[in-house]
UniProtKB/TrEMBL annotation:
Belongs to the DegT/DnrJ/EryC1 family. The active site is at K185 (proton acceptor). PANTHER family: PROTEIN RV3402C, TRANSAMINASE. CDD domains: AHBA_syn. It comes from Paraburkholderia saeva. It comes from the Bacteria. The modification N6-(pyridoxal phosphate)lysine is found at K185. Its EC number is 2.6.1.33. The keyword Transferase applies. The keyword Transferase applies. It holds the Pfam family DegT_DnrJ_EryC1. This is dTDP-4-amino-4,6-dideoxy-D-glucose transaminase. GO terms for molecular function: dTDP-4-amino-4,6-dideoxy-D-glucose transaminase activity; pyridoxal phosphate binding. One of its GO terms (biological process) is polysaccharide biosynthetic process.
Length: 369
């Protein structure tokens, strides 16, 4: 038995002594929020690191999704994935938009472009795919569909910080891409998020929407919300950014160790990367298939009993929750790949401080069932 619990992911904590000067500077500046110096600096440094031109910081990724839909004035129906965290589709409901679920690709677990096209109706205005586990969607196929049907594309890129495909940053695709900087993400500000913008005009509109729609002290032009990132969270982000490449290198080492040790274990399928040029190793998902000696849920419980806490991520499907399951597109016969995947998926622990000896323990336990 282990002396401590091992979770699927843990927040990366910066050295406390290095954070003290940031706190002192915030106190000296007497600016705590509303686009202060650290906020502006983090936007600049993230643009440089991610290879994008414009970014809007948010207090969390969920409010960023809600605002992205508002910024593009999306209405009607939006085609999205049932295989994601509920914030993806919740952002649609909060904007009075009808989610339409389409099935996923069995190899990548991202939206299947063929299923997207089949789900389009006269009420469809946009597509909201998810770069699941940080692996890029079929961005070219999705963009072709969007162009053919005059649809907007908003990518939920919560998992895709720093990921690059053959054409550069995956965040540059679609009309907007939305990041999460939650504590469990590859890059985090404890709580936070961002929208990648294609141009300065869009950034101005989004910055207005995240600040109640204000354009001046006495002028409000839109029903915006309070989505601003504080100086405290921005300072955390600046410190985290100093260590991101080191953290990614450690994640890659852990990913490689899992793959080597699980190769050949009957009934365990490790998802392959989806062709990304630069990966971020955000998660380590496996599929516990029918020829494994025990069921996925039994393995899940046995690992938990040993103090190792994986996640059935994503189970249940979004489409199975009460607020969605009445939709015609939510019926399981419409989503066979997503349904099967949600019943087999298990994400194993992966974070920079995870010791390879723990990976050894986890993989031996899985192999010995």
């Amino acid at each position: 038995m282990r002396n401590e619990n091992i979770f699927v992911t843990k927040p990366t904590l910066p050295p406390l002594d290095e954070f003290a000067p940031y706190l002192q500077q915030i106190w000296n500046n007497k600016v705590l929020t509303n686009g202060g110096p650290f906020h502006e600096q983090l936007e600049k440094e993230l643009c440089e690191y991610l290879g994008v031109e414009h970014i809007c910081l948010f207090t969390n990724g969920t409010l960023a999704l809600v605002t992205a839909l508002q910024a593009l004035r999306i209405t009607g129906e939006v085609i999205t994935t049932p295989y994601s965290f509920v914030a993806t589709s919740h952002s649609l409901l909060w904007n009075g938009i009808k989610p339409v679920f389409a099935d996923i690709d069995r190899d990548t677990l991202n939206l299947d472009p063929a299923k997207i096209e089949a789900a389009i109706t006269p009420q469809t205005t946009a597509i909201m795919p998810v770069h699941c586990y940080g692996h890029p969607c079929d961005i070219d196929a999705i963009q072709k569909i969007a162009d053919n049907y005059n649809l907007k594309v908003i990518y939920d890129a919560a998992h895709a910080f720093g990921v690059e495909c053959d054409s550069g940053s995956v965040l540059r695709h679609g009309d907007l891409s939305v990041l999460s900087f939650h504590a469990t993400k590859v890059f985090n500000t404890f709580e936070g998020g961002a929208i990648i913008c294609p141009d300065a005009k869009t950034k101005v509109r989004i910055d207005q929407l995240k600040n109640f729609g204000h354009v001046g002290e006495v002028t409000v032009v839109a029903p915006g919300i309070n989505g601003k990132m504080s100086e405290f969270n921005a300072a955390l982000g600046l410190l985290q950014l100093k260590y991101i490449d080191q953290a990614l290198a450690r994640r890659k080492r852990i990913d490689t160790a899992y793959r080597e040790r699980l190769e050949g274990v009957k009934g365990i399928h490790c998802l392959k990367g989806a062709g990304e040029k630069i990966a971020n190793y955000a998660y380590f998902p496996i599929l516990v298939q029918a020829d494994y000696p025990i069921r996925r849920d039994d393995l899940y419980q046995k690992l938990k009993d040993r103090g190792i806490h994986p996640r059935r991520y994503f189970y249940p499907l979004i489409s199975d929750f009460p607020m969605y399951r009445g939709l015609p597109s939510a019926h399981r016969e419409n989503l066979p790949v997503a349904t099967a995947s949600s019943q087999q998926i298990l994400c194993l622990p992966i974070y920079p401080d995870l010791e390879i000896s723990v990976v050894d323990e986890i993989t031996r336990f899985i192999a010995d069932q």
